[in-house]
Hints:
By secondary structure, the chain is mainly alpha-helical. It has 13 helices and 4 strands. GO terms for molecular function: heme binding; iron ion binding; monooxygenase activity; oxidoreductase activity, acting on paired donors, with incorporation or reduction of molecular oxygen.
Amino acid sequence: MMRISPNEISIADLEASNIIYGQTSKFEKSQYFYRPFEDQASNLFTFRDRQQHLQDKRLISHAFSRTNIIQNQTSIYDHGIYLMERIAQRAEDSETIPLLNAFRCMKLDTISDFAFGKSTDALKLENFQSVILNAIDNATHSVPFFQHFPILREVLRWLSYYNVNSVPNGFLELGQVASNGFQEMHASNTWTMFKNMIASAEKKSQTLSKEHLIAEAIVMIVAGTDTTAVALSTTLHKLLQMPELYHKLQEEVWTIMPSIESQPAFDKFDTLPLLDACLKEGLRISCPSRVRLPRTVPAEG
């Protein structure tokens, strides 16, 4: 246990972490930390009320069920194969491969397909540079300033209201991306995560506002792009530095995926212990969440 500020302590203990962050925890999310992650409304990441969070989680979790993932795995395979083709072409042309941005583009296309039913086609862009990735960077980089100076967020909202665009507002840009995604989604008959979420809410006589859906979409875009891309690029980079392990992993994957055209159901990968170990180690060393997630001690202690 270490005191890191006059009113905050950091605890490095697995048992304590389960108590603090568990579903039945009495320690609420710290408002000063989570509020800057909100734009138009609260979302799954920022809900401080336990019941609201649970209600929202149930709606989203249904869309991410194993059945729904397997039903939409063709899209995931398509984006993965296209990424490999682009990497192979750059290698053939003796060009460097920006692993992180390449994976970010792949995951951006994947999550937009899953959430809205239409890919952003970021993988087709030159050098894997997307304005949406820039918006994600602007949003995440601004959070620490909003945490220390909350008034800046309100000033930025005020400037946006009066169309003063000289100050970059990543959250506003992502909100526009989400809004466009919903427009395209409602114009198609394709299954999407958010259609599933809306249908689940209607069955429970719940109404999801436009602002709430956009807030959830921003979380999906950021988490579905950056968190996964960081883990994948870090894992692959490490594996390439260990050719013996890399080839051993290839041999294991070939047992269920003998060719590039093979598309085994995702649950088949559960039978591959080395792949599972590599992915878990990749998550450990990449540490997708590199910041503390403070909770507040209740008045009774």
